[in-house]
Amino acid sequence: MDHVLSTHLLANHRLNTFWLDKIWDCGVPAVEIFCVRQHVDWGDASHIRELAAWFRDSELKLHSLHSPMFSDDIWGRSGPHAILKITEPVKSKRNAMVDEMKRAIEIADNIPCRYLIQHVGISGEEYDERKVEAAYIALDEISSFARQRGVEVLLENIPNAFSTSDRLQLFNEQTHLKLNYCFDIGHANMTEGVEIAFQGMRDRIRSTHIHDNNGREDSHLFPLALDGGAIDWPSAMELLRSRANQYPLLLELKTVEAKNPLSAVRDIFEKLESLESPHER
Length: 281
Description:
Number of helices: 10
Helix content: 25-40%
Order of helices and strands: EHEHEHHEHEHEHHEHEH
Largest sheet: 8 strands, parallel
Oligomer: single chain
């Protein structure tokens, strides 16, 4: 399978040419840029130009952008106004949030990429038909804006009442947007289970988020590397290999207290790829 690394691993560092060089040195051919303002400031033209110049001269490709979830640079802790969600039912508030997301998509004007990963709502959000309508209106606008830049919007399964595999399928049927998916295996482990989520999403999966957790906390653990993970990785890899040509293996990890958080990435890819199917043992 193709390998991609999300810069989520470096989200508390400013993304610059130093980190991009480090990622390339790990043998990873493509990245997903995780859009949080302390990491990538989509409103800073000079920052985006610097990154674009590096990508133009590099073999490292930008696979995808992760749509911003916060407008501030401290993970939304400045207050509720800093949380970006397409399920906001108040039109004026939602329009401002969508505009912020569109500014991040404009990164693709300078650094071409294939996908935008988009959440429907926030973690733990309860189902509400008014919010479904809000999400439809927002996604129709976001998708049109992204398509103009050659970018396809993918919906990600997250732990809320809008984003289980069956709810995403229902949303597509109700809205006729026919959007494809990013399968987040860690989020599936926290909700309906990895196999159920995969089977419900499989035809439309175009990208992945690979990480581990204990089934309760969205901790983005390193697969096969740290204690606390609960995913059955041999079985998970068997599922992922069943549609291997549809999507890459994309690690979305959380940093650990180490001098070089990228040092384990190559080993994780190798370990995952070398796992035997439970049926081959």
